[in-house]
Design a protein that fits this description.
Strand content: 15-25%
Oligomer: single chain
Number of domains: 1
Distance between the termini: 32 Å
CATH topology: Spore Coat Polysaccharide Biosynthesis Protein SpsA, Chain A
Length: 251
């Protein structure tokens, strides 16, 4: 099994080295590492180039945003399984990809694997601010506001080839729409790895201002509509409430 990891960068010089180190230090032997850069104006590519022996391909060109760049990565990937690690996130330890591979190997019918995530301080990645424990998926869970942490979501490349990548009509919730479409609508078989595998720095685009959160909530509603799906009565309220619980579950 080969696992493709996609990292999207744009003016990420301050954090991308930590991200790269957490990928190249993995003990899993068959990794394809792709860096998709949006024409960074800082020293991002200088940092990336220092690790060129460990990076299979670097694409640096203008894009239409994060999800467009991720779609480029998916299209370029040649691995059996595709995962994504953003340029200010890191893997929790060097066995993450081995454990993901074990989940796929244990059941060949599994098409996606997800795990837990912690939000950490931007300067001190050992300081946990929120804990996202996803839990086992049960059919209909999306209607109750459930979703897995997207940075922990690994999917077989064949699924993307069959069902498509990110919907660029959504600017903030394309990851939610993707998982809603794959898991809830098309019912791909997923497995849960009950441990923290990703540390996400606080302060990213998805966890900033109230207005960003409000727009994301509106896009969540669109995600159901464009898939011809009907959410539960209180789905759009329960999803942010589930996130609120993460502040009371630090580990």
């Amino acid at each position: 099994m080969k696992i493709s990891i996609i990292t999207i960068t744009y003016n990420s010089a301050q954090t991308v080295e930590d991200t790269i180190k957490s990928v190249v230090s993995q003990d899993f032997p068959n990794i394809e590492y792709l860096i998709i850069d949006g024409l960074s104006k800082d020293n991002t590519l200088g940092v990336v180039n220092r690790y060129s022996p460990y990076i299979d391909k670097v694409i640096s060109e203008k894009d239409k945003g994060l999800y467009d760049a991720l779609n480029k990565g998916i299209k370029t990937a040649t691995g059996d399984v595709v995962g994504m690690l953003h340029s200010d996130d890191i893997y929790a330890n060097n066995q993450v990809l081995s454990k993901i591979a074990q989940q796929f190997a244990a059941d060949p019918t599994v098409e996606g694997v997800y795990a837990d995530l912690v939000f950490v301080d931007r300067d001190d990645t050992n300081k946990v601010l929120r804990t996202w424990k996803a839990g086992e998926y049960k059919e209909g869970a999306f209607k109750k506001g459930w979703m897995p942490p997207h940075p922990t979501f690994f999917v077989k490349k064949s699924v993307y080839d069959r069902l498509g990548g990110f919907n660029l009509d959504l600017k903030l919730s394309a990851d939610y729409e993707l998982m809603l479409r794959l898991i809830h609508k098309h019912k791909i078989k997923v497995a849960y790895l009950p441990e923290t595998i990703v540390k996400m720095r606080m302060g990213g685009i998805s966890n900033t201002s109230f207005f960003v959160k409000l727009k994301a909530n509106m896009e969540d509603k669109m995600a159901w509509k464009i898939n011809d799906l009907k959410p539960g009565l209180f789905t759009t309220f329960r999803k942010p409430l589930n996130k609120l619980k993460q502040y009371f579950s630090k580990s």
